[in-house]
Structures are given as C-alpha cells and as structure tokens.
Amino acid sequence: MRKVIIVGAGAWGLACAYACARAGMTVQVFEAGKIGSGASGGVMGALSPHTPDQWEAKKQMQLEALRDAGDFWAGVDHLSGLMSGYGRKGRLIPLATPRARELALMRIDGAARLWQGEFDWQVLDRHPLVSPEVMPCGVIHETLSARIFPARAVASLAGACRALGVEINENMPVAALGEHSVTVGGVVVCADAVILAGGATGFALLDPHAPFVTGGGVKGQAGLLACDLGDAPQIYADGVYVIPHAGGQVAIGSTTEKHYADAAGTDAQLDALFTRARAVCPAIANAPVIQRWAGLRPKARRRDPMLGPVPGLAGIFTAMGAFKIGLGLAPVVGGMLARMVAGESVDLPKSFTFAHHMEP
To answer: Is-contact 335 329, C-beta < 8 A?
Structure first.
C-alpha cells in the first residue's frame, strides 16, 4: 500500500484520488479552498472531440477518454449517490461557408474509420435547433460529444472518493513542495508520492522547481439560462457554446481572457455571448439568465497539459494545465497518474510531458 497526497480538489485532483484509491492506495487531498472552487466548479461541461483527421497521440487519448466517459461517470455517480449531469447527446456545428461544408464532408470517412463506427459524423442541410441564418451551408451533427455539469460532477467525484476512504481536507492550502512531501500549515507532510493538481494557482508551487514560469490562469466567463431543451445536442458556432443541461438549464460560454482585472467578475463580454448564443439558437431567445460565472482555467506554459514526474524533485508528479479539456480527460488522466505513482510506465503524448514544456 502506498500513501499518496493530492494537491487540489478539482476535476483532475479528484480523478487522481479516485483512481489511486481504487488501486488500493491511501489518499489524502489538500484543497486551498472548497471542492471545485476553481474552474471545475463552473457551468459549461462540453465534452467534445477534435476533428477526425490529422490523427495523433493526443487525439487518440481524448477519443478514449470520451468513449469511456459514460461508464466512468456512471460508476462515480453510483458510489456517491449524486448526479454528475453526464449525458452523451452529441453536438451541432453550423457551416457558414461552402469551404466549411466541403471540409465537413471530407471528414465523414475519417470519423467512420477513426471512431471505429461507434459514433456518427453527418452533414445535414438544416437542424430545427439552429437558426437558418448561421447555417447557410448546412450543419454537422456528430454523436460523440457529451455534456456534464462541472460543479455537480466534481461534487459526485468527491463523494465517490470519500466512499473509497479518501481524506479530503478543504481550506488547507499547500505552501510548498519538497521531495516526497508538502508543507501545510507550517507542517511538512510526507508521502510516497505527491500529485500536484492545483489548478491555476498550483503553478506557483511548481515554479521554484523549474527554470521559468510553468503556467497560469486564463479567465473564462459563462452563464446559465432557464430553458428546457430536453435531450437536445449542444451547439458550437463560431466560438460560442450552447449546452442543454438536465433540469431545464442551458449553459452559454465562454470567453478566453489572458488579461483581466477581476478574475471572478463578469461583464459586457458575457452579455455579448448571450446575444450571440440567442442568435444561434432561437429556442433560447427569451430565456432568462439565472447564473453568471467567471473563473480561471489553468493553462500550462504550452497549450497542452503537463503530466508526469517533476525532474529533480523526487516523488512529485504533476497533473496540471487542464485548460478547456479537464473534465473530458479526467477519467484518463486519473488512471495515468495512478499508474505512474505505482511505478508503471505510461505512454503519454510527447506534448503532455513535463520535458516538452521545459523545452526553450
């Protein structure tokens, strides 16, 4: 039995805790605030694939995560007795130009081959959920995408971890990392392994052990409308997501802001998203706003996540840089980190490795 410390109780931290506990390890989680208080406590939850062409290792990794997500979240919800809001409902992507339609048609064969016939990629002339004005050249309908409600998913994951014996400590920020250890409240706590999954603020713990800044937070704004679209697919149109959630709510998002004055504040940029989303989907035209949300999404030095052991710091592993794909990759990332901690070899995409991020 190995003792593992997890820094952070967001989607990746809890997914790592869940996988380690299922592997028979003793797991202790330290969270600076509340469970899911970072980006994982948001409202969006679009679990969507890359385009089915120019295939590479990270696209395969994402495909496997999305394919297995239903079983993963069903198991989590069963253990916790809560509902994550997961549902594979597909996605619509309006086609605004003849060239966009041409590319979409070219990808049909790729989707059939790479998705192994399990999911469809169709090009339709229209769809009743999408305004004709934004799909003059048709609309893609793919059935691999799913939705999940981030705040509910993280709560369910925390419940499942506790059911497996994981100790979750809220409002206990980690001040520093050391070899096989963390410093919490002035006390050094040791373990066989430490997994840093501290979200946007976690990079500050990593920076003293790297030759340059390892990452930071990118602000995103999103919101919820009161509207019941049932089991309708999500819509992605020109940077705007419309995500029908269970329970009569629709998420709209999100902005990507590298520069901001207030990390938790919402403003006219979110109002503009609401306006654009209503133009895309007439069914939500009169739906009232019931929640406005903003937070920082953790982005590593390079765009892809940073996973694996930290060179020169024994016993420390990272699960950092989830950015916009955290919940989608959570089932795979948790399992990979658990295997690394157990001493097993893991075949990571090169762009996900710590070494890749440290290259000049």
So the answer is: no
Question: How far apart are the C-alpha atoms of 323 and 343, rounded to whole Å?
Answer: 27
Give the rounded percent of residues in the chain with a pLDDT score beyond 90: 96
Q: Residue 240 corresponds to which tokens in the numbers above?
A: 């705007």
Side chain identity at residue 260, one-letter code? Y
Give the residue ranges of DSSP H helices in 262-350.
Answer: 268-280, 326-341
CA distances from 292 to 44, 158, 225, 238, 272 (A): 11, 24, 9, 21, 13
User: Do the beta carbons of residue 334 and residue 305 sit within 8 Å?
Assistant: no
For the chain, state the CA radius of gyration. 20
Q: What angle do CA 65, 19, 39 make, to 5 degrees?
A: 65
Domains of the chain, first to last: 3-52+151-215+301-358 (3.50.50.60), 88-145+217-299 (3.30.9.10)
Residue 157: how many CB atoms within 10 A of its CB?
32
- 207 DSSP assignment: G
Each residue's pLDDT tens digit, 263-293:
999 999 999 999 999 999 999 999 999 999 9
Give the E-state strand segments of the chain in sequence order: 3-7, 26-30, 46-47, 91-94, 121-124, 139-142, 146-147, 167-169, 174-178, 181-184, 187-190, 193-196, 215-226, 234-237, 240-245, 249-253, 289-300, 306-309, 316-320
Measure Cα distances from 350 to 12, 329, 355 in Å.
19, 16, 8
pLDDT band at 360 (very low <50, low <70, confident <90, very high): confident
Sign of CA dihedral 195, 201, 204, 205: negative
User: Over the stretch 144-175, which tens digit does the pLDDT of each residue have?
Assistant: 999 999 999 999 999 999 999 999 999 999 99
